[in-house]
Amino acid sequence: MSPVKLTLRCPSRVGQVTADPQPDFSFDDLRVELYSLEEKLKTSTTPFTKTCSRDFPLIKTTKRSSKPFVMGVYEDELQNIFNDGEVVCDQGSNAKRFNCDGCFLSDSEDSDNESTLGTRAHLMEDVDLVESSLAQLTDDHLLNTKEEIRNQLGRLETNLTTLNEKSSAAASQIEKYYEARREADRRLDTQYQREIAEGLDKYLTTVQRHHEQISQREERKIRSDAAFEEAKRKEKAMLEEKKRIEKAKAEAEAKAKAEEAMKAAIEAESRAMKEVAEREAAENLKKVDAVQAQETIVGAPTTKPVNSVGQAKGTALDGTNVSRSPGSMVRASRNALTLEQERLQKLKEVEEGNQALRLSSNKDFSTHERHIARLIRQIVGTKENVSTKTSQLLKIFMDPLCPQTISIAAFAKKVVSQCESSENAVFACSHVIVLVTSQVPSAMVLLLAEFHRACIYTVPKHVGYSEAAFESKESYYKTLGFREDADGKMESVKDYLKRLEAYMKLYGALVQTEVPGARNIHGLEEGWAWLARFLNAVPPNIYTATALYAFLQVAGFALFRKYKSQFRKLLNIISDNFLSALRGKENPGLKQIIVQIESYLEDRKFLQEPEGRTLRGSLLSSGMVPESEYTKDSYSRSGNSYFY
Q: Which segments cross the bilayer (predicted)?
């Protein structure tokens, strides 16, 4: 007997039995189910018999078999159960396969075979048991599978969480290790840098000490050479002086002998001339007597020639003599002119001496002069800068390689010329001047002489124009201080006034500068004297007005702090007399300077400290006189003169 293959047709449900062509269970589940089905069939009245044992392997697997489900039965049993079944033989098997389409029986079908109907009912009952068992097994399998999957997922999650925690802990430990290593490296770097800095400091200290020793040796050598040169120079000078004295003595002896001989000749000649003069005097006396006798007879008196106003020529209206020389047009105080002449004479003597030194010496002193000029250009308004430049200038003055007269003459000249620069800090420069001249007083005399030479209004004085006194306008302008370029063209009035203002600002800063621990030789007393002499002697014009305004801008604050009401009187004179005279002149260029002076007086700017007066570093007091102390009623309308 060969097995047959059972193939289901639609409908797949017969009564309570459902045929599923692809059951959702494993081969092991199917095997167990078949064993239970065989046990049930053994106890039933169904003519199914087991032909052979199904020895399936007891290996659990979830893989489905690709072979079809084959049920083997005997042909007589098949005929008894399904009379009308359609048998399909499988050539490759001894079992017969059959199709269930012919086995489908509906409730409406009529059958005359009662045995067949009984067998069918029995099979339906068995099929319900099988179906319920298969369903139960399927559910149990699904539940077990899900539970196993959930257990595996839980284990995987637990393992993953554990691995994450271990990874985090390991990463934290690694980070701590790295941080510890970085901190250790940082400490090592700091220690290493400290050691390097200490080593470098020691090295630099050693190098500096070595350089200092070298510089000290060089300085000692320079001083020794200078002393040797000085000794040689003195020795040479002594020899020359000795020769000169001997020569002068010989010349004096020869001169004395010549003078004695000349004296004798002169005495003889004088005696002869005296005799001749006596004779001529006697003759003249006779002639005068004759003339007087003649005038008495005629009666015609002699008179002096007079000018158009009835005054003798050569005499001014005020009784002072007026000459045709330029000096007669000078307007200045007598004391101011005397001081000017003394200072200029001193400067002239120093310059002549310096010229003689340059000719007699082979040394070039221009290097020291350029160094002085460079230091003056570098002066700025800070305490440290002023102190440094002062020390360097004093060091140059004390340098034995350069005579002091050359150094201070160069200092005075460069200071005055440098003030023409618009970037010059006048207050800082005045501090340097005061500090230097307090140590070297002779420098102040030369500095003031340079001021007078560059600007006549620092005297103060003014030269009036006269055609008889000056050959041309250009000559007059040169007397006032105008400059002439290389082409012979005179500078403009605007440029001259700009330079004039620069000179007066530096002069005003100088007289008002007070430095603790240093004496200002030309201080506020000289500034007060300058202002009084200016108002008494100088006429009002555009040049004098510019000089006055520049001076008040810089020195007015300090003068008011010291002289108070007396200074207000001078301001009143400026307001009533000087400005009134300026307004009466028909000069369009005066309008601006008049407005500036009026603004200075009306706004009382002398109560405000000028910008830059106090150096950074508090060299000077920054106090200011309260405005309440100033009242317009305190002005005294006095026309007195202030001569110094």
A: 542-560
pLDDT category at 556 given cuts 50, 70, 90 is: very high
Residue ranges per domain, the chain? 3-110, 163-290, 510-644
Residue count of the chain: 644
Q: Is the pLDDT of residue 545 over 90?
A: yes
Tell me the C-alpha distance between 511 and 529, whole Å.
10
Least confident of 102-111, 276-285, 483-492: 102-111
Rg of the chain (C-alpha set): 68
Contact status, residue 17 vs residue 11, Cβ threshold 8 Å: no
Strand runs labelled E in 193-237: none
484 three-state secondary structure: strand
Decide if 3 contacts 93 (C-beta within 8 A). Answer: yes
Residue 558 burial class via C-beta count within 10 angstroms: exposed 0-12, middle 13-18, buried 19 and up: buried
What whole-number distance in Å separates Cα of residue 369 and Cα of residue 359?
Answer: 17
DSSP conformational letter for 621: -
Give the number of other Cβ atoms within 10 Å of residue 351's Cβ.
Answer: 16
Closest CA to 127 of 10, 33, 51, 31: 33
Higher pLDDT, 357 or 108: 357
- For residue 144, the 8-state DSSP code is H
Q: What is the mean pLDDT of the chain?
A: 75
H or E element at residue 3: strand 3-7
What are residue 108's phi and psi, to 5 degrees? -90, -10
Three-class SS state of 441: coil
Q: Which two tokens stand for residue 128?
A: 């319900």
Q: Report the C-alpha gap between 297 and 287 in whole angstroms.
A: 16
Using DSSP's 3-state secondary structure scheme, residue 477 falls into helix
Q: What residues form DSSP beta bridges with 17? A: 14
Average pLDDT score over residue span 147-173: 91
What is d(CA 330, CA 584) in angstroms, rounded to the nearest whole number? Answer: 22
Residue 397's identity, in one-letter code, is F
